[in-house]
């Protein structure tokens, strides 16, 4: 066959196959003329106009045979889709919003047969708008009746509604439409221009713009109840004596704008105060001849519409023979043993006066011949009432009686008002003699200062409190939302001041930059705090590396300060603060002071995020004692410390369970709270000194000396230095005979150092690192030491150097150290030991010590891990060992299991994690 004829044959075959699709899938060859018609639902041909609503479609039937293709011509805005396989024609009316769309016309469908024949079918169409309907689902037969200021919701059903126009509202009324819900609000009661009734018309429109029937909503103000109520009990007749004056107060409904007051009984006086809704009723000192013995006062409320409400009636009665006794004082403050003479200011119909009762320990000697009475306070507070009332009984010739009270109080603080006045006096540098009792300022009752509205309650900068404050076991409640930097109960406690036997509760919040916040005081310049218990919670919302916070005192600035039997339990949540402690933020360098039998049990959450906290210190008890010479005895923390740096390498100088930077003497101090990096396995290593008892001691000439101290809290983190007892001990000065000393101390908390992102530096069960002269005597680690490093780790000390002496010390905790190839450790690293991994060329002395804990480490050579010690100068530098280790230590440590996992077998599995 010729190529030209071959092409014709293939084309004919293609046309036959294509025709099969349009010819009822009949694969027999049929090349007759095209057949095409559009049918109604009853299979009759479409001849009449098809009427559709805007934005709707209609489906017509299709009959077709031998069709190769179709094409439709439509009026403007219309649509037509021909589906031969489904035997359907879909006609779509225009969008009602399309103003140029044809309202009617013809859709012409041209069908082309497989043989080239043509068939044209015409479908007449017309677009009409559907009925526009808006109907309220609520009954509108009656007006919507609302009290002044009251609101009501109306809900509507709608069909073919695109928008709703609302008429102007009656004066003073409000209406807000949200979809098909209309909220109507009646005018305010004090709106004199408001309409009391009216109509709101809603007119619906379709998308095409067709208008539907309007909905008319009638509205009216309902007369709300007109109510006037007396706040005092007036159910019975109110008794009066000559010269009596009594004030009655009232509560009125919102629509009451006036009150009519009836005339007073003859001889009585009325003083109404509409603004305050009060009425003063009084009778004269002397009874005129026409004085009404009884009567009624009627108060009638009037609404803003002029309607009267139910009246309120006060029935009154006066006795002209009853005794009337008044003193020149009704309240008096006293010093210890002080006597004050009070005088009779008024006496009417009084034949006799007797003393009915007196506060415990107080005395009264009346001399009514001279119209006086001598009141005497107790000589001591012990066993006496701090406040109370003398009650006197006056008797008339008619044997009628009257009780007269005189309130008496010791000088001091009896309520929040007294406390604020005391605080103002200190802040002003004024005398506080009026608050002194036996040389002390006494708190005689619990005081709620949550409404004080000030950052500091007592004193101000440069205006310290230097006296003695005795809380007598009472509680002060604080609610301080600080606007300034300084916040706390006292601003400054001066040298020699004492605050004792006080409880604190409440909250302090601050967002101030470089905030200085202390529960008891912002600053202590040499005062004593004794017997303090605080549950004040603190929240700091600023990401600022500055300022001080202490549950007791933010910053102790001078020597001589003492803290005795003080305890905090308030939770702390912070994004910043440079020096932070559950008890003290910091003590100043080169100061001396003492803290004895004090504790923190409050949790601490340090949400540092990406904030750099370089130079910062945080701890459960005291944040920073750098270069100080304080003595801490039986000071402890049991609150958990959770910290995070937002999965960044943010730095902080130290975080410790009990102490951050620890210089000074520590006796029988301990931590039981966990110290945990809450970034978990996503934590990123940074320069941080983390420890269960303390974070660091690193001040030249100001060593740490710890005796019988311990940690049992878990320590979790990843940084240069992580230790179960302390992160790093360094900076001591051998030339000054000032080594760091640890005697009879131990760690029992597990140390976990793991991250999926980075690898840690040095860590150990007792110390992570000891540089520059430390002496350990009878110290031990019992906790597990688990983690990854490319440096060194140890059951007792992770890295020891520089005249370190280990005497009679022990590790019993399991040590399991991993390493990763990705961390690229130097040859000879990591190096790991049950007691100490040794760095540097200065000799380390180990005697009478032992390791019995199993030691497993991923190392590069078997010699890089040992039971007692490993020296870096041997494993890394290949130099001779200069360590001084006695045979007793080597022998006692020989039985421990030591396992080296060499580089080919390194893995990510550490048991116990």
From TrEMBL:
Keywords: Signal. It comes from the Bacteria. Residues 1-19 form the signal peptide. The keyword Signal applies. This is Binding domain-containing protein, N-terminal. It comes from Alistipes timonensis JC136.
